[in-house]
Amino acid sequence: MTSLIPSSSGLEDLPPGAEPGAVPAPASTRRTGWRAMLPSWTPKLAVGLGLVVAIALFGLIGPVLAGDPDTIRNISLTAPSGDHWLGTTQTGQDVLDQLTHATRGSLQIGLLVGVMATVLSAVFGVIGGYVGGIVDEAFSLFSNVMLVIPGLPLVIVISGFVPADQRGSWTIALVLAVTGWAASARVLRAQTLSVRNRDYVAAARVAGEKPWRVICVEIVPNLLPVLASQFVFAVIAAILSEAGLSFLGLGASNSSTLGTMLYFAQNGFALQREAWWWFVPPGLIIAVFGCGLALINLSLDEIINPRLRRPVRKRAARAASGSSRNSAVRSTAA
Predict the structure, then answer these.
(1) 51: which of 1, 98, 146, 292 fits an S-S bond (Cβ 3.0–4.6 Å)?
(2) Total-model pTM
């Protein structure tokens, strides 16, 4: 008599998690391991990385090849020429030399603020969300207080109280980091509250793992996309805030940044003198670098939330189904 129990030989070849009767995908189209977690390479991400890398290389290599930005080349304001590709300032300093050093200074401040703000948000958000209790309540209260205080006025007040001769890059970076971590901490706390109730975190607790190991090994790796997105956003906000402070005369006094270039261009009446080569290049660098980081941030948002990519996939699937339907109609008509 023929057995009614299906043979397991046909199930042995199915990949884990596949349903019986499902056709397995070809080996060439399947991605396993960490490759399955990588997003598709989008033009948005490629353009953003290209802009950021180009400006970063300009800020890193440019000062090595350029001359001293404080050297007086001539005694007047001159337009771009073969000798000075971006012209000179009112005091005869080469704008291109100043632009290379100013780009490096702005990138340094942006990187410092991004690292410090991300660390502060991780400490107050992840540790508070995992430990809970009075620690979480205290961290949440402090985060809410920092969140409701207007950021820009607080930065202006703090920078105004610091003496001008002590306002260096580290001071400005510290002020911007202290006033810009609270919103990210709230997001990380919400994500940590969701992750800490999952089975693998409970298994680590039952196994006797120490809290710091559970946080570093089980929770933080699952929050890396969120941390990366917050780091990129912190760098954007830091560069824009520093440019605004320097334009108001409250920036770093002993370092050159893109904001200080705009400040001296405004004081030298560059706009009234139609000296566009003095204020357009630093403003363009800020805008292009911010655009590149924004594109990267949007790509990271798509990695964090795959639903943002669903409309594109639905349109592609709808177009594919429509083309197959049309081909079927044409074959039937033939």
Answers:
(1) 292
(2) 0.75
Q: Where are the domains of the chain?
A: 41-66+92-304
pLDDT in tens, the chain (334 residues): 444 444 444 444 444 444 444 444 444 443 433 344 444 567 888 899 999 999 999 999 988 888 788 787 777 788 888 888 888 888 888 899 999 999 999 999 999 999 999 999 999 999 999 988 899 999 999 998 888 887 778 777 877 777 777 777 888 888 889 888 998 999 999 999 988 888 888 888 888 888 888 898 889 888 888 898 899 999 999 999 888 888 888 877 778 899 889 998 988 888 888 889 899 999 999 999 999 999 998 888 777 766 666 554 555 556 555 555 555 545 555 5
* Integer-rounded Cα radius of gyration of the chain: 28
In CATH, 41-66+92-304 is 1.10.3720.10: yes
Number of CB atoms found within 10 A of residue 73's CB: 17
Residue 88, strand partner residues: 94
Nearest to 19 by CA among 27, 28, 10: 10
